[in-house]
Description:
The chain is of the alpha+beta class. Helix content is 35%, strand content 26%. The chain has 4 helices and 12 strands, in the order ββααββββββααββββ. It is rod-shaped and about 155 Å long. The relative contact order is 0.10.
Amino acid sequence: MKVTCRNCGKRFDYDTYTGLCPKCSTYYRIDSAYDTTADTYDHSETDDDLYDDEEDDFDASLNDDLSKTSYDCEQGKTADLHTSWQSDTGYVRSGAFKKNRKLTSFLLVLIVLAFIVPYVATQYILHAKQEENSLSQVVVPVPASMGETLSFETEGNYRYDLTIQSASVVTDACYQIPDGYQLIGISYTLSEPDAAAEDTVDGNRPSRSLGYDDITPYLCTQSGEYLQPIDAYDIARAQGDKDYEWRQATGTSSDFEYSKGTVYFLVKDGDIANLLIQHTNYESTTLLESYQIDQLEVTE
Length: 300
């Protein structure tokens, strides 16, 4: 008996397929209410015709499936290509982002170092200067007076005796002294009491050099200033550009280094308080000894 599928419209032989539609697989039962509308068997159609129709339907269904499959494959390839392109693009963008992030991090590190390195270097220099200018121990100036012998021991255990002989106002016309100021010359002697008799004396200098030790005077004023001596080159220039031999012969210096010499200070009139004498070692930046002469008698 030939029936027509109510679901897809396919005509098929009920007995051959036992009620199962070969196209949509819908099942029919003869005794069901649904099958009362089934077509009666058409004796004009042979089994070969039925087979041909079913074969054609199968081929058409197969072609539809192949077309759909081919289309799906093409769509899949296109989708795969699109996905691959998106993946490649995303990989490129991700790589570029990572590269830019590394470059940004490197630049940030450089900027931070540009601020930190100068700061650390400045702090280190300031700390080193502070240590250099600081005292390893508190040195209280020892009171002294003019004409008193002041003893100093150097790094090589050599002893030097210093004596302040006089302090006077210098009135030479070669010096251009500003109004309200006066030029003070302080004369001194420096000797080595422990030097051997065979030690030779180089001109106006002690037989042995002070080496890394300095014995330097500072003129303290009543206004609280500590004045350094005038440089020996400036004194020599005022005297008519005198040379080294003249400075050594006259003992003109800015510290106590000659056997007989003079140091000069420019100070306001009537502003002298005392004379501070310090013994330092500039290699170890250490203050070793200090003397202070309060009653500094200045003669005209």
